[in-house]
Amino acid sequence: AQQAHLTSAWDGLADDLPRQIRACTRCPLHRSATQAVPGEGPLSARLMIVAEQPGDQEDLQGRPLVGPAGQLFDRIAGDAGLDRNAAFITNAVKHFKFRPRGRQRIHQRPDAGETEHCRWWLESEINLIRPVVILALGATAALSLTGSGTDLMQRRGRAEAGPGGIPVLITLHPAYLLRQPDVDKKAAATDQFRSDLALAQRMS
Ligand code: URA
Q1: Which of 58, 63, 94, 115 to mutate to test the pocket of ligand 1 (most atoms within 8 A of CB)?
Q2: What's the N-to-C CA distance of the chain in angstroms?
Q3: Which atom of ligand 1 is found nearest the CA of 137?
Q4: What is the pLDDT of residues 72-117, one digit of tens each?
Q5: How far, in Å, CA of 42 to CA of 16, rounded?
Q6: How far apart are CA 133 and CA 188, in angstroms?
Q7: DSSP string spanning 108-136?
Q8: Where does the record place the Uracil-DNA glycosylase-like domain (predicted)?
Q9: Which of 18, 37, 90, 127 is the most buried (most CB within 10 A)?
Q10: Which helix (H) or strand (E) holds 101?
């Protein structure tokens, strides 16, 4: 009976956080986005993956990393032996920030103030999951998790101290690979990304 009681208390806490995130009006980004996108994955996850913010597809579907950058992430993670389904995946900022252009919605990087406002939710997710290692995808996640906005490519492939002393492994964002027009640069960055994902898997 004790066990059943503990399980239901835990479930209540876990349901409550996504519900609170979906109701968030702490910054103006909620006004134009379709919905907030909370993290998803097992509560027992040892690895937490933090991307930047929902994109167009994530905003519509309400799930993190399911659009083109997420699909590229899944492909390279598969090559690196990293199981996405075993990780808890979330974003540093929970609402999509964009600029309308005709019928398109063009992604805009969240600024330091928006990232800071949303850090409350990211830290709540970290406290809920208590991962062994956190993988930061790109500069916004790295800033939110370490407080440092210095050059990402100098820092990638290594762990820094994150919230509560949890190691934060820094890597690039998969959207960088999608945008990179130079074939050789893209291949080199893809190799780096794959090796960072393999390291995250080994550390978790
Ligand atoms: N880019 C992100 O950073 N996060 C998503 O969820 C999708 C695209």
Answers
A1: 58
A2: 32
A3: 3
A4: 999 999 999 999 999 999 999 999 999 999 999 999 999 999 999 9
A5: 15
A6: 25
A7: ----HHHHHHHHHHHHHHHHHH--SEEEE
A8: 38-194
A9: 37
A10: strand 98-101
